[in-house]
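Reverse transcriptase RNase H-like domain-containing protein
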Amino acid sequence: MKKSRYALTNAPLLLMPDWKLPFKLYIDAYGKGLGAALNKVQIVNDKPYEGPICFVSRQIKPTETRYGASQMDCLCLVLALEKLHYYLDGSVFKLITDFNAVKSLLNMKT
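Structure:
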């Protein structure tokens, strides 16, 4: 309970990007919206700290309410790549999602 209260009452420490290290891109599509967080692991006080660089979110549009789960997560990935391309173009990043369809899509051989 104390951790939840602390998380809700304190803003996260936003980090500056370190272009030498890979980014972590978290995406999630949920009931009424899409969200993404771009994170970075950096050394803070001699300990590794994973913190956010920026967040992206938006509500889903009326036509998107008919999308299936895999389409929603792919839409979330497209949103994140469009909004965060200044950070991600030419950079190494790890995509983290809870949906296996997106994982298998990224592992397909063309």
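DSSP finds four helices and four strands in the chain.
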